[in-house]
Amino acid sequence: MLEHSIRTIPDHPKPGILFRDITTLLGDPAAFSAAVDALVAPYTAPAGVAKVAGIEARGFILGGAVAHRLGVGFVPVRKKGKLPHETVRISYALEYGTDEIEVHRDAVTRGERVLLVDDLIATGGTAVAAVDLLRSIGAEVVAAAFVIDLPDLGGAARLRAMGLPVQTLVAFPGH
Ligand code: AMP
Protein backbone atom coordinates (compact mmCIF):
# COMPACT_ATOMS: atom_id res chain seq x y z
CA MET A 1 0.00 0.00 0.00
CA LEU A 2 2.70 2.49 1.00
CA GLU A 3 4.76 1.66 -2.05
CA HIS A 4 1.84 2.49 -4.36
CA SER A 5 1.25 5.83 -2.66
CA ILE A 6 4.72 7.03 -3.73
CA ARG A 7 4.93 8.60 -7.19
CA THR A 8 8.01 8.11 -9.35
CA ILE A 9 9.10 10.94 -11.64
CA PRO A 10 11.69 9.84 -14.21
CA ASP A 11 14.54 12.22 -15.06
CA HIS A 12 13.90 14.65 -12.19
CA PRO A 13 15.77 16.78 -11.27
CA LYS A 14 18.12 15.56 -14.01
CA PRO A 15 18.33 12.79 -16.60
CA GLY A 16 18.76 9.29 -15.18
CA ILE A 17 17.30 10.04 -11.72
CA LEU A 18 14.08 8.33 -10.66
CA PHE A 19 12.69 10.88 -8.22
CA ARG A 20 10.61 9.26 -5.48
CA ASP A 21 7.89 11.82 -4.80
CA ILE A 22 6.23 11.48 -1.38
CA THR A 23 3.74 14.34 -1.89
CA THR A 24 1.25 11.70 -3.08
CA LEU A 25 1.81 9.69 0.13
CA LEU A 26 1.41 12.83 2.26
CA GLY A 27 -1.80 13.73 0.45
CA ASP A 28 -3.36 10.31 1.11
CA PRO A 29 -4.61 10.25 4.72
CA ALA A 30 -4.47 6.44 5.03
CA ALA A 31 -0.95 6.24 3.61
CA PHE A 32 0.38 9.21 5.63
CA SER A 33 -1.07 7.78 8.82
CA ALA A 34 0.24 4.25 8.07
CA ALA A 35 3.73 5.61 7.36
CA VAL A 36 3.84 7.61 10.61
CA ASP A 37 2.44 4.64 12.59
CA ALA A 38 5.17 2.39 11.18
CA LEU A 39 7.96 4.92 11.82
CA VAL A 40 6.80 5.42 15.42
CA ALA A 41 6.21 1.76 16.33
CA PRO A 42 9.76 0.76 17.45
CA TYR A 43 10.16 3.81 19.71
CA THR A 44 7.01 3.91 21.80
CA ALA A 45 8.69 2.57 25.00
CA PRO A 46 8.91 5.31 27.64
CA ALA A 47 12.71 5.46 27.50
CA GLY A 48 12.76 5.20 23.70
CA VAL A 49 13.68 8.66 22.49
CA ALA A 50 13.59 12.15 23.95
CA LYS A 51 13.66 14.05 20.65
CA VAL A 52 13.18 13.55 16.94
CA ALA A 53 15.52 15.32 14.51
CA GLY A 54 14.23 15.87 10.97
CA ILE A 55 16.26 16.86 7.92
CA GLU A 56 15.01 19.83 5.84
CA ALA A 57 12.58 19.77 4.17
CA ARG A 58 10.65 16.51 3.83
CA GLY A 59 12.13 15.25 7.09
CA PHE A 60 10.33 18.13 8.83
CA ILE A 61 6.91 16.88 7.73
CA LEU A 62 7.50 13.26 8.69
CA GLY A 63 9.70 13.98 11.70
CA GLY A 64 7.23 16.53 13.05
CA ALA A 65 4.41 14.00 12.85
CA VAL A 66 6.58 11.29 14.45
CA ALA A 67 7.63 13.62 17.29
CA HIS A 68 4.03 14.60 17.93
CA ARG A 69 2.93 10.95 18.05
CA LEU A 70 5.77 10.08 20.44
CA GLY A 71 5.05 13.10 22.61
CA VAL A 72 8.65 14.34 22.32
CA GLY A 73 10.37 17.48 21.02
CA PHE A 74 11.51 18.16 17.47
CA VAL A 75 14.93 19.37 16.27
CA PRO A 76 15.22 20.87 12.78
CA VAL A 77 18.39 20.01 10.85
CA ARG A 78 18.48 22.88 8.33
CA LYS A 79 20.30 24.05 5.26
CA LYS A 80 22.93 26.62 6.22
CA GLY A 81 21.91 30.17 7.07
CA LYS A 82 18.32 29.50 8.12
CA LEU A 83 18.55 29.04 11.88
CA PRO A 84 18.52 32.28 13.88
CA HIS A 85 20.49 31.35 17.02
CA GLU A 86 24.03 30.02 17.54
CA THR A 87 24.58 27.04 15.23
CA VAL A 88 26.98 24.19 14.54
CA ARG A 89 27.54 23.39 10.88
CA ILE A 90 28.90 20.44 8.92
CA SER A 91 29.66 20.11 5.23
CA TYR A 92 29.27 16.90 3.28
CA ALA A 93 29.96 15.68 -0.23
CA LEU A 94 27.31 15.65 -2.94
CA GLU A 95 27.70 14.04 -6.33
CA TYR A 96 29.04 17.40 -7.55
CA GLY A 97 30.43 19.72 -4.88
CA THR A 98 29.44 19.99 -1.23
CA ASP A 99 26.48 21.09 0.86
CA GLU A 100 26.12 22.23 4.45
CA ILE A 101 23.56 21.56 7.17
CA GLU A 102 23.33 22.98 10.65
CA VAL A 103 21.54 22.75 13.99
CA HIS A 104 21.22 25.06 16.95
CA ARG A 105 24.04 24.38 19.38
CA ASP A 106 21.54 24.12 22.25
CA ALA A 107 19.03 21.89 20.39
CA VAL A 108 19.69 18.90 22.68
CA THR A 109 21.00 18.34 26.17
CA ARG A 110 24.07 16.16 26.64
CA GLY A 111 23.22 12.46 26.23
CA GLU A 112 19.70 13.16 25.02
CA ARG A 113 18.35 10.24 22.99
CA VAL A 114 17.52 11.35 19.46
CA LEU A 115 15.79 9.58 16.56
CA LEU A 116 16.79 10.89 13.11
CA VAL A 117 14.02 10.99 10.48
CA ASP A 118 14.07 11.75 6.76
CA ASP A 119 11.92 10.74 3.80
CA LEU A 120 14.56 8.79 1.87
CA ILE A 121 18.06 7.40 2.23
CA ALA A 122 20.16 7.08 -0.91
CA THR A 123 23.96 7.30 -0.56
CA GLY A 124 23.58 8.23 3.11
CA GLY A 125 25.72 11.36 2.76
CA THR A 126 23.04 13.61 4.23
CA ALA A 127 22.09 11.27 7.07
CA VAL A 128 25.70 10.50 8.06
CA ALA A 129 26.40 14.25 8.21
CA ALA A 130 23.27 14.78 10.32
CA VAL A 131 24.32 12.01 12.75
CA ASP A 132 27.82 13.50 13.07
CA LEU A 133 26.33 16.96 13.62
CA LEU A 134 23.87 15.77 16.28
CA ARG A 135 26.62 13.82 18.04
CA SER A 136 28.83 16.93 18.00
CA ILE A 137 26.26 18.81 20.12
CA GLY A 138 25.99 15.92 22.60
CA ALA A 139 23.08 13.89 21.26
CA GLU A 140 23.00 10.15 21.60
CA VAL A 141 21.58 9.25 18.20
CA VAL A 142 19.77 5.98 18.90
CA ALA A 143 18.39 5.17 15.45
CA ALA A 144 17.48 6.51 12.03
CA ALA A 145 14.17 6.02 10.25
CA PHE A 146 13.21 6.63 6.62
CA VAL A 147 10.13 5.94 4.55
CA ILE A 148 12.17 4.99 1.47
CA ASP A 149 15.43 3.08 1.07
CA LEU A 150 17.42 2.97 -2.16
CA PRO A 151 19.46 -0.04 -0.99
CA ASP A 152 21.72 -0.22 -4.01
CA LEU A 153 23.16 3.20 -3.10
CA GLY A 154 24.33 1.85 0.26
CA GLY A 155 23.25 4.60 2.66
CA ALA A 156 21.41 2.38 5.13
CA ALA A 157 24.39 0.01 5.20
CA ARG A 158 26.69 2.98 5.92
CA LEU A 159 24.58 4.01 8.90
CA ARG A 160 24.42 0.43 10.20
CA ALA A 161 28.21 0.23 9.89
CA MET A 162 28.32 3.25 12.26
CA GLY A 163 26.44 1.12 14.81
CA LEU A 164 23.10 2.78 14.20
CA PRO A 165 19.86 0.78 13.88
CA VAL A 166 18.11 1.82 10.66
CA GLN A 167 14.45 1.34 9.89
CA THR A 168 13.01 1.80 6.40
CA LEU A 169 9.47 1.13 5.16
CA VAL A 170 9.73 0.76 1.37
CA ALA A 171 12.77 -0.27 -0.70
CA PHE A 172 13.24 0.56 -4.37
CA PRO A 173 16.03 -1.49 -5.94
CA GLY A 174 18.22 0.32 -8.44
CA HIS A 175 18.54 4.09 -8.24
P1 AMP B 1 21.67 10.89 0.19
O1 AMP B 1 22.40 11.95 0.97
O2 AMP B 1 22.35 10.47 -1.06
O3 AMP B 1 21.28 9.70 1.06
O4 AMP B 1 20.32 11.57 -0.31
C1 AMP B 1 19.25 11.69 0.56
C2 AMP B 1 18.55 13.02 0.41
O5 AMP B 1 18.35 13.39 -0.95
C3 AMP B 1 17.18 12.94 1.05
O6 AMP B 1 16.94 14.13 1.79
C4 AMP B 1 16.24 12.77 -0.12
O7 AMP B 1 15.07 13.52 0.09
C5 AMP B 1 17.00 13.23 -1.35
N1 AMP B 1 17.00 12.24 -2.45
C6 AMP B 1 18.07 11.54 -2.92
N2 AMP B 1 17.74 10.73 -3.93
C7 AMP B 1 16.41 10.90 -4.14
C8 AMP B 1 15.46 10.31 -5.05
N3 AMP B 1 15.81 9.38 -5.97
N4 AMP B 1 14.18 10.72 -4.95
C9 AMP B 1 13.81 11.64 -4.04
N5 AMP B 1 14.65 12.23 -3.16
C10 AMP B 1 15.94 11.87 -3.19
Task: Provide tags for this entry.
175 residues, alpha/beta, Rossmann fold, 7-stranded mixed sheet, two-stranded antiparallel sheet, 9 strands, binds adenosine monophosphate
Give your account of this protein's structure.
The chain is of the alpha/beta class and 175 residues long. It has one domain (45-171): Rossmann fold (3-Layer(aba) Sandwich), CATH 3.40.50.2020. The protein has helices at residues 23-26, 29-40, 58-70, 125-136, 155-161, and strands at 7-10, 18-21, 51-55, 73-79, 87-93, 98-104, 113-121, 140-149, 166-171. The protein has a seven-stranded mixed β-sheet, with helices on both faces. The site of adenosine monophosphate has 17 residues, from β2, β7 and α4. Adenosine monophosphate (AMP) binds at residues 17-20, 55, 58, 118-127, 155.
| Tally of DSSP β-strands | 9
As a whole number of angstroms, the C-alpha radius of gyration is 15 Å
CATH structural fold name = Rossmann fold
The assigned structural class equals alpha/beta
Tertiary shape: globular
Task: Identify the CATH architecture.
Answer: 3-Layer(aba) Sandwich
How far is it from the N-terminal to the C-terminal residue, by CA?
A: 21 Å
Q: DSSP helix count?
A: 5
Written as H for each helix and E for each strand, in order along the chain, the element string is EEHHEHEEEEHEHE
Name the strands of the widest sheet in spatial order: 5-6-4-3-7-8-9
Give the rounded overall mean pLDDT. 96
In this structure, how is the largest beta sheet organized? Answer: 7 strands, mixed
Attached small molecules: adenosine monophosphate
Helix content: 25-40%
